[in-house]
């Protein structure tokens, strides 16, 4: 084990003068040879928790990672820091793999990333046996450890076999890490990876720099463009859609409106996916429109927004996806629009799948928790953290409910009308027809089924169509109504509707704000108002000069700009204006290797201004 203090290595290699949160305790525990389970939010500094011990301990650190993109990103960043790092995965040809294997055997490498499939190959395990006998294995890091859970959102069956590390290398410390795991998932990680003796480090799941907003769906495209135009005219971001078709249509529509948008889903040719991902990582201001196939392991720190045009499947999925925004701790937005159709289609998808009933029940519970979050009138940060077993005082001033408190109303009578209409029409019609009945519209469908003769026909004229739509959405989200798959999405009463119909229970709903018409903004106007995401520096020529230099160096090195320096480091350079390499070395994120490689270049930019 190295005699160099962890804090010195932290500064010299990574450019940080202090640890964050529980990083120091984790680093010291693993460096001393202990096993650990680390739960830390995206952007909280998980990678450092295994990278630093790998440098402080004798031998090579083996990192199990599920995604090729993540490996490449991490290795690029480590090489910039002067760390001898490499990865082994299917993207390499035989000659490359042989060369890295030879470096491993010679003890030349400090950190190696490997996919679980490769690690589990008998030939690779035999190679690890030889390495342990020779240069030694510093540690095993199991990243994205939630992949071991069958109830998780990124289940990978190969992860279940990683107990071989404990059985075959009992004296090598293991550190399992994840950004999202509720209590059941956490227990399953411990059980499946044989980490019963491991020390657990659970950091706060709060991401105070992210502003959460959920808006009622009207014209989703116009709402999205209004959001982008007002807050993210030149920013990198991710837009999630449920279907491949919607991904492609949304990306095409955004491009036609002047946005630099790219599609990403599993149905695209691999070369197109890789090219689009590369552009997103290496260029500024690119928007990725994607299914959930995109995102896990994406290290781009300056993603300024994540938008959802469709409802995710669970709170874990929502937290993981929105957590890809603002990894640099600078302000970021999590914006979602959803409506009744999202609730019905998601429940229909869960119920019609081939999964065992036990799994369906768990997935329904997870979806219900997310619906509760969407319809909540309290602090979003508080609601989100409560799901993960953490308390929050509320009043975050970083969510829609805190910034514009939501009114509630006694919707008991309206709910009885809505539920009664479902019952009277036979529990097999969709919300559009039900509202037509309540409003007393004489449509051909109402005539066809003789619904104009029902007692509920025309009794709901006291509310508008959009208000009834809100009532039905919230009744479905609240579990009073269920979608009937066999009736093609028709609504039927749930057990919890009976006390309401009998007058034994009250129903209070959130008062939706009427969605106003959205003015279209021209490309020229949007361009003139384009912001860089940080209003205080948007018009500063020096800020743009620093970014231009970073992009120039990134292209020379063949790496994404943020691998040179994060935006937060550039902002500190802008504000501190160091006049020498010594002063530059005090900037957060400027380690020795980067100081030697880039210090003079950025000092020249400062001198020229």
Give structural notes.
This protein has 609 residues and is α/β, with parallel strands linked by helices. It has four domains: 6-202, P-loop containing nucleotide triphosphate hydrolases (Rossmann fold, 3-Layer(aba) Sandwich); 210-403, P-loop containing nucleotide triphosphate hydrolases (Rossmann fold, 3-Layer(aba) Sandwich); 408-510, Winged helix-like DNA-binding domain superfamily/Winged helix DNA-binding domain (Arc Repressor Mutant, subunit A), CATH 1.10.10.10; 534-607, Orthogonal Bundle (DNA polymerase, domain 1), CATH 1.10.150.80. The chain is built from 28 helices and 17 strands. The strands form four sheets. It has a seven-stranded parallel sheet with strand order 3-4-2-5-6-1-7, sandwiched between helices. Helix 2 packs parallel to helix 3, helix 19 (431-439) packs across helix 21 and helix 24 (541-557) crosses helix 28 (592-607). The relative contact order is 0.10.
